[in-house]
Specification:
By secondary structure, the protein is α/β, with parallel strands linked by helices. The protein is built from 13 helices and ten strands. The strands form two sheets. It has a five-stranded mixed sheet, sandwiched between helices. InterPro entries: ATPase_NBD, Euk-type_GlcNAc_Kinase.
């Protein structure tokens, strides 16, 4: 790793951000120079000042001293021009260089398919999907967020589990394990969801808890039905029988066997599951 980076304008910074974490890759050509993680950023839950503070405190100082050709930022919550402007203003203020802000969905599509066509899917704290023609997104079934949509996501899985827990529908053994590990009461859970910042992150952590209990029939069924809803309500609205389908996201990656099982119910073979899109985006931006 370079101790002091060159003044070359060929350096690029790529960021992929979900609601839970942001992955940053400083590259020169197709070479990764430095790779770091910071907390998640989402303009639906953070204002410009909070985003700027998160970026400044989360990255090494050398990132801000390096002369960059462009910063390519792909983020959750960046589907509208208004939200892109919030991110763009924060990034320009910190890096003082040209900025391109795009949705995390376009980042997933470019990372998974580069310049080829296919159906790109995200399964993490949130969920999303699109048909990508090798250049741009040409169809997107609206994600809807964790209250109105986001089927298959960690936040929705957590919401479904908590709803059952509060009504006494979770098996006692699993309920006790949850309370023991999270060390919260039912009232605390309500507080986290309704009165604390970023409830989607809290709900998403429950999905990781449930991943450890897939041998439990209740947990397995909750997981499986959540994934089926994603296929039924999103993937089946695309021409899924004629194009490859690929997934990105921590939930998809860490539970890829279960994901493949559900896909097979729909006659689908998923040919690639990646944890993040950064490696694919490095290849994409070194060639584009």
């Amino acid at each position: 790793m370079h101790s002091e980076y060159s003044n070359s304008f060929y350096m690029k910074l790529i960021a992929e951000s979900g609601s839970t974490r942001t992955e940053w890759a400083l590259i020169e050509g197709d070479q990764l120079i430095q790779h770091v993680f910071s907390e998640g950023i989402n303009p639906f839950f953070q204002n410009r000042r909070e985003i700027s503070r998160s970026i400044r405190l989360g990255l090494p100082e050398v990132f801000f001293r390096t002369k960059l050709e462009t910063v390519y930022y792909y983020g959750a919550g960046c589907s509208s021009d208004a939200k892109k402007e919030i991110l763009g203003a924060s990034l320009v203020a910190q890096f003082k260089t040209p900025i391109q802000v795009e949705s995390d969905l376009l980042g997933a599509a470019r990372g998974l398919f580069k310049n080829e066509s296919g159906i790109a899917c995200i399964l993490g704290t949130g969920s999303n999907s699109c048909f990508y023609d090798g250049q741009q997104i040409v169809k997107n079934v609206k994600a809807g967020g964790y209250i109105l949509g986001d089927e298959g996501s960690g936040a929705v899985l957590g919401r479904l589990f908590l709803a059952d827990l509060l009504k006494g529908l979770v098996p006692d053994e699993l309920a006790n394990e949850f309370y023991d590990k999270f060390r919260i009461s039912p009232s605390d859970a309500m507080e986290y969801v309704y009165n604390r910042p970023s409830p989607n992150r809290f709900l998403g952590t429950i999905a990781y808890f449930l991943s450890d209990y897939l041998q439990n029939e209740y947990a397995h069924d909750l997981w499986t039905n959540n994934l089926r809803n994603f296929f039924n309500r999103s993937i089946c609205q695309y021409d899924y029988q004629n194009y490859p389908i690929r997934f990105i996201g921590s939930l998809a990656y860490n539970n890829s066997n279960l994901l493949q099982e559900v896909a097979q119910e729909f006659g689908i073979v998923i040919d690639l599951v990646e944890e993040t899109s950064v490696n694919g985006l490095i290849k994409y931006h070194s060639a584009n």
